[in-house]
């Protein structure tokens, strides 16, 4: 991705929607991008299927709840949107949220989602694997904002890139190029994993990034840590990074996404925004 011109933000009734919108607004101002907020939650007919089965008397109450949930989301959006230039667009979906967001993402340069918050009242409004499902189903760059507030006026100032000679990592770095070019510092973390045959040429990510106008500091380690995700978060914290870029590793098993260890670790413990691409 050479430019960042369209940002899609997931909106729901949780208070984290405001944080995602504000983050998107800062990115949009820096890159001259437009922002669209897409309201997407599990329809009550799916979320409370067992309740609907109790009888037709309960249906009006559930539909009223759905209307109130939408109104809360819109009430958060309106004052935030009024303070943003240009004003974001608002879209509403009524279908399954992973499918709706992934479809809209196909014509967006970047998707902004929120880290799952087990303590939120709205936790049941989305599938448990919402973030990873959207990442994998859309194939688009997804920036996940942590559930804890991120205080930064200049997003993506210091970026850590997790590099491994894989399709997922290459796609993530390519998608991040507009952000990397604007960063004050870019650090690339890589570990030997023993997968390359002896004497085999290893792709030179440093030279490739420099050819795209990105100066980097390399962090090469001979030994791969037991928990790569934890190591990446530790390095990001030590460097004062405000964005981590990495490939999203996982596969589908039955009806759930099974994540790779590093992806699962980062999504569970992240303290900074993370850009993921599958």
Account of the 3D structure:
This protein starts with 5 loop residues before the first strand and ends with a strand. Strand 1, helix 1 and strand 2 form a beta-alpha-beta unit. The mean pLDDT is 89. The protein has 11 helices and 12 strands. It folds into 2 domains: 140 residues, Rossmann fold (3-Layer(aba) Sandwich), CATH 3.40.50; 120 residues, Rossmann fold, CATH 3.40.50. The strands form 2 sheets. The protein has a 10-stranded mixed sheet, with helices on both faces. It is α/β, with parallel strands linked by helices and 278 residues long. The longest helix is centred in the first third of the chain and has 24 residues.
What labels would you give this structure?
single chain, 278 residues, alpha/beta, Rossmann fold, ten-stranded mixed sheet, two-stranded antiparallel sheet, 11 helices, 21% strand
């Amino acid at each position: 991705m050479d430019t960042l011109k369209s940002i899609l933000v997931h909106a729901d009734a949780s208070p984290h929607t405001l944080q995602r919108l504000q983050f998107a607004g800062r990115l949009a101002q820096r890159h001259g991008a437009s922002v669209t907020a897409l309201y997407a939650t599990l329809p009550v007919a799916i979320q409370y299927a067992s309740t609907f089965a109790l009888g037709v008397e309960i249906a009006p109450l559930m539909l009223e709840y759905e209307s109130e949930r939408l109104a809360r989301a819109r009430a958060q959006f309106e004052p935030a949107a009024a303070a943003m230039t240009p004003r974001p667009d608002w879209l509403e979906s009524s279908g399954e949220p992973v499918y709706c967001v992934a479809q809209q993402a196909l014509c967006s340069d970047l998707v902004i989602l929120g880290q799952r918050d087990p303590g939120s009242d709205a936790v049941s409004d989305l599938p448990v694997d919402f973030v990873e499902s959207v990442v994998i189903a859309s194939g688009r760059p997804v920036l996940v904002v942590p559930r804890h507030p991120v205080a930064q006026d200049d997003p993506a100032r210091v970026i850590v890139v997790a590099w491994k000679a894989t399709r997922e990592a290459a796609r993530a770095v390519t998608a991040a190029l507009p952000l990397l070019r604007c960063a004050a510092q870019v650090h690339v973390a890589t570990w030997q994993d023993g997968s390359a045959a002896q004497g085999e040429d290893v792709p030179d990510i440093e030279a490739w990034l420099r050819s795209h106008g990105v100066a980097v500091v390399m962090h090469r380690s001979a030994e791969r840590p037991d928990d790569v995700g934890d190591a990446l978060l530790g390095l990001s914290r030590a460097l004062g990074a405000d964005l981590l870029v990495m490939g999203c590793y996982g596969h589908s098993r039955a009806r759930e996404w099974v994540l790779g260890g590093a992806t699962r670790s980062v999504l569970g413990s992240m303290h900074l925004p993370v850009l993921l691409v599958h």
